[in-house]
Specification:
Layout lengths: L1 H13 L2 E9 L10 E5 L8 H14 L3 E5 L10 H12 L4 E4 L2 H9 L1 H14 L2 E2 L3 E6 L5 E6 L12 H10 L9 E4 L6 H6 L4 E4 L8 E2 L2 E2 L14 E5 L2 E5 L17 E9 L2
Parallel strand pairs: 1-14, 2-3, 3-4, 4-5, 7-8, 8-9, 9-13
Antiparallel strand pairs: 2-14, 6-7, 10-11, 12-13
Helix pairs in contact: 3-5, 4-5
């Protein structure tokens, strides 16, 4: 029994769950059919050679068009900037990388602004496109494009009490063209209702860690959500807004994962006639 328990914990914490999600839309040109986005979140400078190899091997095999990272690349409780930068340098050798901050980056900035600046400059030197309330047009070989937006984590502007209001303010600074396909990178999934109100078509988020511990397939807790949280992993829809939520790679509330393996997500566009 002890051997089984140890094996279960090793598998659950050092085996990456790879999930493919189809994003069905009629707003993209057919030239984006089968376009593949790899989604990584909440790495928390884990720096596990076993985990990293699985991620890199999968990415090299699947050959995504772009890679998106939705925050908490570092961990503010045991910050290792170099580990996070080494990870993203390897990602940049595989595909273009786009990144937004999470609440742990905010914590790092508040505790040690020099370390935060080193992370930001190191990311840009590695070739990462850092979207701090910014937008990029992602163009394919046919000259068609979609809009990729990224917002700073709301924690940069204060505590959790007004995350919904701050998210609304940040999105209000963009001029969304609802005739075009708009993708948003935003760390928090619990503010899906705000993303929906602004008409975003697709959102990538993290933060929830899948609950990190699940019982009978249900997460018990997740950061900044109620008990038995509604947003933990996979694909969610609200009207015409779709949200892809990663369970993350590292740890948050507890230094262990139970029935909640590290998560690498591929979102593949499926266009309709």
């Amino acid at each position: 029994m002890l051997v089984f328990s140890i094996g279960f914990l090793i598998y659950g914490n050092f085996s990456v769950d790879v999930q493919e999600i189809h994003i069905i839309t009629d707003k993209l040109p057919d030239s984006f059919h089968n376009y593949l986005i790899a989604h990584i979140s909440d790495y928390h400078n884990r720096s596990s050679a076993v985990i990293d190899k699985q991620i890199f091997d999968s990415l090299k095999e699947e050959k995504p068009d772009i890679i998106v990272i939705t925050g908490d690349l570092v961990d503010s409780d045991h910050t290792d900037i170099e580990a996070s930068l080494n990870f993203v340098k390897n990602l940049c050798e595989i595909a273009p990388v786009y990144y937004v901050t999470g609440n742990h980056e905010s914590n790092v900035r508040n505790a040690d602004e020099q370390s935060f600046d080193a992370l930001m400059s190191g990311m840009e030197d590695a070739g990462v496109t850092v979207l701090r309330n910014g937008m990029e047009k992602i163009e394919n070989s046919e000259g068609d494009y979609f809009n990729l937006y990224g917002i700073e984590d709301p924690y940069f502007y204060g505590g959790y009490e007004q995350v919904f209001q701050r998210t609304e303010k940040l999105l209000g600074e963009f001029s969304f063209n609802n005739n075009e396909f708009n993708v948003l990178l935003a760390h928090h999934p619990e503010t899906l209702s705000v993303y929906y109100r602004f008409g975003t078509d697709l959102v990538f988020s993290g933060h929830a860690h899948g609950g990190q511990v699940t019982l009978f397939g249900k997460a018990v807790v997740a950061p900044d959500q109620v008990t038995f949280p509604p947003y933990t992993s996979g694909l969610y829809k609200m009207g015409n807004t779709q949200l892809v939520l990663s369970r993350g790679i590292g740890y948050s509330l507890l230094p262990i994962r139970i029935f909640c393996r590290p998560h690498l997500v591929y979102a593949e566009f499926k266009t309709t006639e």
